[in-house]
Amino acid sequence: MRGNKLVTFLEMIKIEHTLFALPFAFMGAMLGAVVGVGELPSWAQIGWIILAMVGARSAAMGLNRVIDKTFDKNNPRTSMRAIPAGLLSSKEVWIFIVASFVLLFVATANLSTLAMKLLPLAVFMLVFYSYTKRFTWLCHIILGFTIALAPLGGWVAVTGHVDIYALILYVSVAFWTAGFDVIYACQDMEFDRNTGLHSIPQRFGLNGALWIAKGFHLIPAIGFLVMFLLMAELSWWYFAGVLISYALMIYEHSIVRPNNLSKLNTAFFTMNGTLSIVVFCFTCIDLVVRYAW
User: Fold this and answer.
1) Which of 82, 110, 131, 246 is geometrically suited to a Cys-Cys bond with 87, CB 3.0 to 4.6 A?
2) Closest of 184, 218, 219, 217 to residue 199, by C-alpha
């Protein structure tokens, strides 16, 4: 029974979607350490960053499921999620949320002083996002800037400060996230219209939403390139990863069309999970080759 509960909690928070943000958190930590102190982050720092990410993401997903439980129950796509399906109670999820925030606090306390000072802002954004689709179609951008706290947090955790490179990475990941979230939201366009929820597909239609998602993805495409041009710490290994990320984003947009959303999950999960891993791995190879050997 306990094993089944654990599986249910992991399914509730979509643990596999950690592939979107965790690689970029590591990338932010590695770049920040190299730029700030000229060496790679320690294993202790990496460990605390992982725990902070687990705590933050678990709390955010738990909050989203509790806050949206009524909408989830009425949406055929989400009606079998843990709370509306009766697999977990709201009380159980709230206990899980509190425990996740405690984990986030403990992990952050073992990183930099600035990370602790910024923690209240991060907690606010984690809570605030779930309410935004009730009043603005800009909810995708707000989600983007919330998830992009992962690479920014990784940077701050090892350096104790924020610089222009950290902000470029932050904005790039924010609009990459916003772009794929717009694509994902296309499947709920009619439900959003019928229930009064706000989203870019609900406001601009499928065709308009997909064009906006393409525009959002131009920002990380430019941002990743600007980092290569400005950061002396990066070389052609990183640039090769960026080129592959371009190909993945182009393919992602080519398989989703207004009259055919059958490959939406491939575009959302497979392509974006692969993109974040590719960019991180090539950045990692670049920095490890230059600074560890």
Assistant:
1) 82
2) 184
| Stated pTM of the model | 0.93
Q: What is the pLDDT of residue 17?
A: 64
CB 115 within 8 A of CB 108: yes
* Residue 277 CB coordination number (10 Å): 16
Question: pLDDT of 93-133, one tens digit each?
Answer: 999 999 999 999 999 999 999 999 999 999 999 999 999 99
Domain count, the chain: 1
The list of the chain residues with pLDDT below 50 reads: 1
Is 5 within a domain? Answer: no
